[in-house]
Known about the structure:
Elements: E1 5-7, H1 27-38, E2 67-70, H2 76-79, H3 97-104, H4 106-109, E3 110-112, E4 118-119, H5 121-133, H6 139-150, H7 174-185, H8 190-196, H9 204-208
Parallel strand pairs: 1-2
Antiparallel strand pairs: 3-4
Helix pairs in contact: 1-8, 6-7
Amino acid sequence: MRRGRAIVGALGLLVGVIGCGGGGSSDQTVSDDVATESASIAPADDATFDNCVDEPRPELGLPAGWTTCADSGLVPPADGFGFENWGGPPTADAFTPSLAVSMFGEAAVCVDTTDGCVLHPAAQQWIDQMNLAIQGGRCEGMAVLSQRFFEGRDDVANFQSEASITAELSRDELTVGSSIARWWASQTFPAVRAATAPTLEWEPLDIAA
Length: 209
């Protein structure tokens, strides 16, 4: 049987910068979090793995006979979403004025709030761009939000009361869809792009290490 090694697992910005086509707080908060956490990340020198496991790991959903050499503890069948990445027009994950306000604050989004939010032209443009670009797929938002659940930064039960694990969440639930959209959009923030760009040059073993 063939054997393998398993590695387990900003306003006005042009849409063209988005690669893989969501809750948090503001742009600045998200940017600061990423910049802080990535400051000490660097590729490993001659990455090696000395703790490979030949034992079956059916909970990981891997083919029989694979060797596991790196395991973050995240178990995809439970800690990943129970639905696939999807494209097409936004539904529960649509970018709306209220979602933009929750991300950037009223002052950045609204010209006037006397009778609801009257959008800045740039804010309306950003909303339109995001709703167009996200039609290519939601993978970034899904990856970030599932990791946040795994790390305990967000609680699954706060998104869907009857869910106890990530895999039980529905993409059509408003809180789930809008949060996937928020974290998907975070990849366009300049500070996030600056922090993550170097990792695009890494080899797979460097990332796993």
